């Protein structure tokens, strides 16, 4: 069964850090572009960060640039999102997704995966930033 499973969410104080993990099973992440997305209550989903499959290039939304880092460990078949200097406005459900195109596009400063034949989404992990 092809699936992505996110973990690492939770409650953190402003200024704190969390590391989200996105573990793949049933397929190998090496050839997939991976994106992290988030959706806050009452708001549309937005792209947070993407990483390509070929050269590992990355792109971040302006709102998280300099604070978040996306990385991949192909040996562990896992992608991470390191989130530092968290703000209350980072509170959202965070999702990872994989696309077999291996690439992403930047639209109005926001990264979005190029969707192909296979599109896989995780179930989400909740991040709450509050004092």
Description:
By secondary structure, this protein is mostly beta strands. Helix content is 0%, strand content 52%. It contains no helices and 13 strands. The chain has strands at residues 3-7, 10-12, 18-25, 33-39, 46-51, 58-60, 68-73, 78-83, 92-99, 104-107, 110-113, 119-121, 125-129. Strands 2, 4, 5, 6, 9, 12 and 13 form a 7-stranded mixed sheet that branches. Strands 1-3-8-7 form a 4-stranded antiparallel sheet, with no helix packed on it. Strands 10-11 form a two-stranded antiparallel sheet. The chain starts with a strand and ends with a strand.
Write the layout of secondary structure elements.
Blueprint: E1 3-7, E2 10-12, E3 18-25, E4 33-39, E5 46-51, E6 58-60, E7 68-73, E8 78-83, E9 92-99, E10 104-107, E11 110-113, E12 119-121, E13 125-129
Parallel strand pairs: 2-13
Antiparallel strand pairs: 1-3, 3-8, 4-5, 4-9, 5-6, 7-8, 9-12, 9-13, 10-11
Q: Which terms would index this structure?
A:
7-stranded mixed sheet, 4-stranded antiparallel sheet, 131 residues, mainly beta, globular
Quick structural gist:
The protein has 131 residues and is mainly beta. Helix content is 0%, strand content 52%.
Give the termini separation: 39 Å
* Record field, number of beta strands: 13
The radius of gyration over CA amounts to 14 Å
Classify the helix fraction into a percent range. Answer: under 10%
Q: Which parts are unreliable, with pLDDT below 50 for 5 consecutive residues or more?
A: none
Helical stretch tally? 0
């Amino acid at each position: 069964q092809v699936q992505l499973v996110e973990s690492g969410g939770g409650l953190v104080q402003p200024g704190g850090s969390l590391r989200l993990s996105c573990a793949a099973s049933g397929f190998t992440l090496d050839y997939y572009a991976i994106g992290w997305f988030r959706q806050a209550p009452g708001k549309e989903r937005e792209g947070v960060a993407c990483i390509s499959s070929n050269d590992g290039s990355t792109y971040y939304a302006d709102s998280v640039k300099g604070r978040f880092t996306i990385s991949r460990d192909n040996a562990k078949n896992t992608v991470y999102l390191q989130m530092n200097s968290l703000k209350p406005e980072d509170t959202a459900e965070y999702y990872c997704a994989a696309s077999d195109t291996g690439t992403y596009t930047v639209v109005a400063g926001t990264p979005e995966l190029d969707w192909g034949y296979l599109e896989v989404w995780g179930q989400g992990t909740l991040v709450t930033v509050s004092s």
